[in-house]
Amino acid sequence: MNNLASSSISFVVASEPNLLKVRLKQRVMERRCSPMTKRHLPPSLKKKLLSSCLPPSESPPQEPPKELSPPCETEEYQRHALFSSPSMPNISLAAHHVLSPDLSEAAVRAACTARLGMPLTGQMLPGTLPFYPSLPAIESEHEETPLDTISELQEPQQSRGVIRPLGRTQSSPLPLGHPLLEGPPPPAPQPPQPPPEEQEQRDLELRANESRSIRPLSRALSSPVVHLGVPDGPPLSRRRASSTPTTGLAYDSQMLKHACICGNNALHPEHAGRLQSIWSRLLETGLVSRCDRLRPRKASTQELQTCHSEAHALLYGTSSMNRHKMDMSKLSSLPVTAFVRLPCGGIGVDTDTTWNEIYTAPAARMAVGCTVDLAVRTWTGDIRNGFAVVRPPGHHAEPQQAMGFCFFNSVAIAARVLQREHRVHKILILDWGVHHGNGTQDIFYDDPRVLVVSLHRHDDGNFFPGTGSPGECGAGAGLGFNVNIAWSGGLSPPLGDAEYLAAFRSVVVPIAREFGPDIVLVSAGFDATDGHHPPLGGYKVSAACFGYMTRQLMQFARGRVVLALEGGYDLPSICDAAEECVRVLLGDNPSPMASAELARAPCANAVVALQKVIGAHGAHWPCLQEAAKAAACSFNDAARNEKDDKDTVSAMASLSMQHQTPNMVSGYHPGCSPDAGRPSA
């Protein structure tokens, strides 16, 4: 009985419930096409499989094989014995160790209790398994195991000293009805969505409000940007927290899609190649990687209406579906209420300003949004200054009129947003394009908080757009805050660096210094550069001169200067000028100008134009009277004269100090007696 009990205990220890399950499960699943089917083994073979788990050291007394089973069954069973895995507790598979059929369950329980010191649980009994709702019973797997699978696993017996229980596996399929097998709950009913146009407008307004919030982006580290690789540089929202504000760049490829439907850029000078060329130049020179990219966005309708009428904003800023919803009485107030057919076969507002029904409105709103964000973030200190590479241009756009390639006045809208939402008191707008910014002048003509200064070709009103004479000085409270440096005399000779340098030192810089702006916005048209045909400009201003003018403006408003691209149609010239301006904004020294231009005095036509400006605004800006003497001088002569003046002032100050020093030593002061200050006897 002791032998039987010890053999029973060995059987219990060796028959950990998951031993056969884990070892045979993989083979069973590979050989069976369906886990739900069963293949039954003969009862005699099943009994012998269970009895084979007894190790030989604890086996009971052997009985003759003929009493257990026929010889054929024994031989067949021995050919299909299992091996013991080195990674599992040892299972002896000797065919001659069998379980006595006379052993009862009560005897096994009693023997285990005496040997182990604890009662035997149901999971330790032969033929029983722990219950897992998601797993099939191991006894079923024994019954399903084919004989050829057992024969493949036969190996020599190995002995192991330590029996480790296997971890429970949960890799079987879940039973039917399990909660994890149930599909996701049905989605909640969604509220009705607004029309696409209204949803887009809401998104634009939300983004506009977020962009205008005052928060230092230099501390933001987790925004998604827009990073387009090393050449494109880090976006503004990904700037390192330890870095200082730098130059911001605004650009988006959506503005390239605005084009005439005829597809012939040779007939339309304002085309997408302008932006592509400038952006490629900035990438090639590595300037983009030194700047912060702003996330582009479209301007909202409310922003457009800060400078334009509601009808104008809806006509040129929305799709044809929204235009059908417009109040026709408002539309009739516009000067242009319908588009015209161009000679090229396209559509336009006039013969110059082309219109694309699909792409023009988004591009125009994108140009405004980029410029506004650049100005706002410069004001809030997120960036030091900025350059907006945008199109279509905007300085010709009036409150109710699109013209001269322009639909919305981007710089004017940026100034209005700064005034109304950020309480900026003094804004300087400088327009150095060869064409007069009639739209900007019209919007701020009576506003004393915005000083508008324009350098443009006028030719006594015979050059487009014909406005911008020196006598147009403003109206009402804005009188004197609209300064037009109107060049006349045609192209005899064409103006260059000497004339623009004279205008800066005699008019622009003195007025700006006296005005004291809080921020400087530049309508940066580069159509005064060399390479433009006479109808589009005809002047010969160098890229280095534009860099010098940018440097001069950076001495005001603590360096808060924002440039927005306007005109400029000769690709090499505008690329050179844009590159030079961005370099100067980044803090690089401007390129040297030609020595001949520095030594040349401005032409007579230019001197006459400057004298007209000084005469028209001398009463409003007293500083112009002192600066008028430098209008006819060359750059070098003006620099020498300025140096001589400074030396003279310093010498006079030194003489004054020397005159006062002896008097202070002797104790004599004018108006006092010689004996004053002396001690009495």
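That was protein one. Protein two is written in the same sequence-then-structure order:
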Amino acid sequence: MMLSRAKPAVGGDLPHTDKRKKKGRKMPKLEELLSQRDFTGAITLLEFKRHVGEQEEDTNLWIGYCAFHLGDYKRALEEYENATKEENCNPEVWVNLACTYFFLGMYKQAEAAGFKAPKSRLQNRLLFHLAHKFNDEKKLMNFHQNLQDITEDQLSLASIHYMRSHYQEAIDIYKRILLDNREYLALNVYVALCYYKLDYYDVSQEVLAVYLQQIPDSTIALNLKACNHFRLYNGKAAETELKSLMDNASSSFEFAKELIRHNLVVFRGGEGALQVLPPLVDVIPEARLNLVIYYLRQDDVQEAYNLIKDLEPTTPQEYILKGVVNAALGQEMGSRDHMKIAQQFFQLVGGSASECDTIPGRQCMASCFFLLKQFDDVLIYLNSFKSYFYNDDTFNFNYAQAKAATGNTSEGEEVFLLIQNEKLKNDYIYLSWLARCYIMNKKPRLAWELYLKMETSAESFSLLQLIANDCYKMGQFYYSAKAFDVLERLDPNPEYWEGKRGACVGIFQMILAGREPKETLREVLHLLRSTGNTQVEYIIRIMKKWAKENRVPV
């Protein structure tokens, strides 16, 4: 089945929070530091004042605010929680505490703190995002109705569109805001993220360049640029971009270290996956998916299934990967239930309005029909994007099978021979289908050579049976006889003797008709003599008599 490609994490799915300065008395120099966005300096000043006993009103709130904007959510949480324990604490602390819980993934606590906060636009935005996290459509719509046509609310709505895979709707909002606010440079990153998700990697790069010209050391933007390079070129090009990011890391780099480590695993083709990805499974959404893909590539299907079985899919990629895992497990265990689940997942994605005209959507429909063994339909979908995958071994593996299954063994053979991947070329599915193509294309010797290269195993026994029976059906009796002879030696089943007897008589018939060299008779007699069946002597006597009459040395 089509294996979903590893996904670098692009980030950018966080709710818009209110980043305005909090109310309260201004401390000396604090306003200046905040206007320069020097949050580290602001914390240093506040801690110094606290140490020397000059602590003023709302110090906890200010330190929490600065720590939050530095991405140090644990420190922010500590300050906000301390603030809630103070007498006459500023009620605004509850919404700030709720936002901090949200960014730490503590959604239940975020909701509880959010409801303690006074009603505000920020509180509504926070609860709007929590409703999305809890998959509560009713609450989501209620909070949606409270949103106003102001920048913060519209940015929050665009974020929800992004997380629900409504990328074009998000782009429309961002572009509308940018028309009136050209100075909101960061929105270019959000637009670029959306284009990335829509697979428009070149457009994403163009939009991103506008932001990087002004903010060349942005961690999120450089990471997205690396992801685009991964899609447009390869992992090495992407890693080069990340290296420049790490070499010139700004203060914003600290919070993105996990994101960078995750993406380096992807760009390096899974190298270090078991060391890096497991701790990130509940931190970066793509980490779980990429760990599943890693296990699939290591043929550890059960481990992949254990990791994804409880995941409730919400994105096309998650549905596709659950389909792939169920298909792989179904094939490994011979489970019809898993195969049916896989087929349903593929059909769901391939039939959806948003995915039906995308390459992944068409791959899903091809996979769905593949599992249903409706190979004519498989080819309709595979042909629609064949030009994009000419040198892709996985695509060619599926395409060749579909071609051969619909009777076009000539083209099936050609496509099978395009495959370079050694693992695929040693797969029994590949060997058996290629052997069948050779036989149907009147090249039985090549099918026999495939068997000779195999080690003795249950698979080589199955290939022998295929060669014996298919060659017999096609009137290629010489290689059918050779295959039945080996089968008879390995398993004295009367059916193998009957097959060999029929094939040997078939060769004799072809020699009489002049369609097989007379010299072949010597080998036929040798094959017959290796059998202890009583019928052998009678058949040999007739053949030798003909050979003597026609002066054929045996």
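The first helix runs from residue 30 to 35. Keep this in mind for the problem set.
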